[in-house]
Every structure is written in C-alpha cells, then in structure tokens.
Amino acid sequence: VQLVESGGGWVQAGGSLTLSCAVSGFTFRNYDMNWARQAPGQGVEWVAYINPDGSIIDYADSVKGRFSISRDNAKNALSLTMNNVQTTDSAVYFCAAGGDFGFWGQGTQVTVS
Predict the structure, then answer these.
(1) DSSP the chain
(2) Cα dihedral angle (68, 38, 20, 64), rounded to 10 degrees?
(3) I need a surface site. Which of 19, 28, 74, 106 has the fewest CB within 10 A?
C-alpha cells in the first residue's frame, strides 16, 4: 500500500494551491478517502472526506467554502484544491484511506505567508 502526496509548497495568503495524492496497492475505487493536516505543535486535524464514488463529500468547518476534495478512480488519484488560503492553513497535509484512516501517506508541507 502506498499513498504519495504532492503539490505542497509556499503560497501567499489569499492564494490557491492544489494537492494531489497518488495511491497504489489497494483498490482505490472501493475506499473512502480523507485529507487531514497537522500544524507544528498541534494534533492531527481532519480536513475533508469523500466516499468511494464521490457522491458524498464533507469538510471541516475551518475549510468549508474554501477547499474542494475530488477523486479520479480511473487514475487512482485524490486531490484537494485549496482556495483563499490563510496562515492558519499552514500544516503538513496527509491523504488517508479508509473510514478508519487505516492507510496514510507521508505528507506534503503547505506554508502560507
């Protein structure tokens, strides 16, 4: 099982960034998927959820209206589009597979200044 996040980096407040998660080693189209983040010195915060066929989506209140989660089951890919980012969005972002968050990627750093 492998989940590899990419797309992180530096972005100015008010800007946009899209994160990607490439997965392998399991049947992606059968799994709930999540994005989560961890800021320095803080615990892990759940960010967004999408069900296997993409028909059910949910967001943490802190990102609702600014972030958008999507998936491409044909490409085994998950995305998170982040708009109007704020300094409080700075964190390491992880994709996680399964409703129980059973599989995690290594994370990608997002820094908003």
Answers:
(1) -EEEEE--EEE-TT--EEEEEEEESS-GGGS-EEEEEE-TTS-EEEEEEE-TTS--EEE-TTTTTTEEEEEETTTTEEEEEE-S--GGG-EEEEEEETTTT-EE---EEEEE-
(2) 0
(3) 74
Q: To the nearest whole number, what is the mean pLDDT of the chain? A: 97
AA letter at 87: T
Q: What are phi and psi of 9, to 5 degrees?
A: 155, -160
Tokens 């989506």 belong to which residue?
Answer: 57
